[in-house]
Design brief:
The chain has 443 residues and is an alpha+beta fold. The protein has three domains: 135 residues, Immunoglobulin-like; 125 residues, no CATH class; 108 residues, no CATH class. It has ten helices and 27 strands. The strands form three sheets. It has a ten-stranded antiparallel beta sheet. A nine-stranded antiparallel beta sheet has the order 22-21-20-19-24-25-26-27-23, with helices on one face. The protein has an eight-stranded antiparallel beta sheet with strand order 14-13-12-11-15-16-17-18, with helices on both faces. Helix 5 runs antiparallel to helix 7 and helix 9 runs antiparallel to helix 10. The longest helix is centred in the N-terminal third of the chain and has 31 residues. It is elongated and about 100 Å long. The protein starts with a helix and ends in a 12-residue tail after the last helix. The relative contact order is 0.07.
């Protein structure tokens, strides 16, 4: 009897376990299904998986975009144009994620009621798998807070938020790349500037700019980058009327040449010619047709001479921490070496704050002017700085010239004019380096 009761209990327990299993399975299945009152998605494609978009409007106009081999968007119709990548990506984001507000009809019998018989806009979205989704955009809702929409092949009519329509209803000017020069700044290898009756040429070695013409000189990389950035910011105003375009062309033709910039990268050489007429600047590019008025920032960025782009600093170690400093200043010798964390001189630990003050003076040591000719006299200051794990050693000699000084980097012909105060402050910073104080003994 006891065994029979135990057997019955096992059977009941097994039945409960099976029931619980199927109950949990049904609950999981219900959870996996979207709520019946949740508006369905009309199009759901990751924007990065979209490789073609066609916009067809009621007036018969059409704009087509497609990704090129490099993944960038290009306008292919009504005729080829470079596309503004931000605008094209925003369009792809909108086109790939269209969610309805509600279903108006499950099986619409009269599409004209919603403006979908002859839609205001058709957006054909093609994925990289070759599937095309055709979205029809019709009339606005009576309350003007949404728009009627339908997916071709789906009998339902939906309403979508107004931003869906505004995000898709773009014209050619909305999507065109408006830059007069379309180079990739990070990939530019050479820049030529003809301004102020000078021909200047810059070349990039890895990430460092050098002046190649009129003669090899150190370049101020930030100034060259600013030149590229400002010329890249020159844009077309595509909203100009035909009359305004003619006026710009006439002003350019009658204007005074300010500069010509040539930028060379993997895609070839692009040229921008800038002229000034009265107080306005106008530009013409070899990449697009037409003449366009540009901002004064563009005009002043290119209206510069050789000295504006020369590196005025005597040392290149910048914010790399040097490992060794040797100075001879007016007959006094100073030598500092970096340990693991501290600076030492003749085996004595030095005060880090006073050494950093000297480093700041060396880092900021800059010319007040450039000297075109002459030779360096007898040095009164001799500086050597070792950095980059010992791979870079920079040496600078400074001689007295009247009330000021002249400096020269080792193995370079260029001469730099220094103000007397600059050299005096450097000498004082070297003299002010002191030993580190021993920690106070505890009582």
């Amino acid at each position: 009897m006891r065994f029979r009761g135990l057997l019955v209990g096992v059977v009941v327990l097994a039945a409960l376990a099976v029931g619980l299993y199927y109950s949990n399975k049904q609950e999981a299945a219900k959870a996996a299904k979207p709520p019946t009152d949740q508006p369905p998605k009309i199009i759901s494609i990751n924007s990065t998986d979209i490789n073609k978009i066609d916009l067809k409007k009621k007036d018969g106009s059409e704009i087509a975009l497609a990704r090129n081999a490099g993944g960038d968007w290009q306008i292919t119709a009504p005729k080829p144009f470079p596309a503004d990548q931000d605008s094209a990506n925003a369009l792809a984001t909108t086109a790939g994620a269209v969610i309805s507000d509600r279903v108006v009809e499950d099986k619409a019998s009269n599409l004209a009621t919603y403006g979908l018989q002859s839609p205001a806009l058709e957006a054909d979205v093609t994925s990289n798998k070759g599937k095309t989704s055709k979205l029809l955009i019709g009339d606005d809702t009576p309350t003007n807070n949404g728009t009627y929409a339908k997916l071709e092949g789906d009998p339902r009519v939906f309403t979508v938020a107004s931003y869906v329509k505004s995000g898709l209803d773009k014209n050619i000017n909305d999507l065109r790349d408006k830059r007069l020069l379309t180079f990739d700044q990070d990939k530019v290898s050479r820049v030529e500037l003809n301004a102020k009756k000078q021909d200047i040429e810059f070349g990039r070695d890895k990430d460092q700019w050098q002046i190649l013409k009129p003669k090899p000189l150190r370049a101020d990389g930030s100034q060259v980058d600013d030149l590229l950035r400002k010329t890249k910011d020159a844009k077309m105003d595509l909203s100009l009327s035909a009359d305004d375009a003619k006026k710009s062309a006439s002003a350019f033709a009658a204007g005074m040449l300010v500069a010509t910039v040539k930028v060379t990268g993997p895609a070839g050489t692009q040229t921008l010619e800038i002229r000034k007429n009265k107080d306005d600047y106008y530009a013409k590019s070899n990449t697009v047709d037409g003449v366009y008025k540009v901002s004064n920032d563009v005009g002043t960025a290119v209206d510069k001479g050789l000295d504006d782009f020369r590196n005025k600093k005597l040392f290149d170690f910048a914010f790399n921490e040097p490992s060794k400093i040797d100075l001879h200043v007016n007959g006094k010798a100073f030598a500092f070496q970096k340990g693991a964390e501290d600076w030492f001189s003749n085996g004595k630990k030095m005060d880090n704050i006073s050494v950093q003050s000297l480093l700041d003076k060396l880092r900021d040591l800059s010319a007040s002017r450039f000297i075109d000719s002459g030779t360096l006299g007898s040095p009164v200051v001799d500086i050597s700085v070792t950095s980059n794990d010992g791979k870079r050693v920079e040496k600078v000699l400074i001689s007295k010239e009247g009330s000021d000084y002249i400096a020269q980097r080792e193995n370079e012909p260029a001469l730099y004019g220094l103000d007397a105060k600059t050299v005096d402050d450097l000498s004082k910073a070297a003299s002010d380096v002191k030993e580190a104080q021993a920690p106070a003994k505890k009582k």
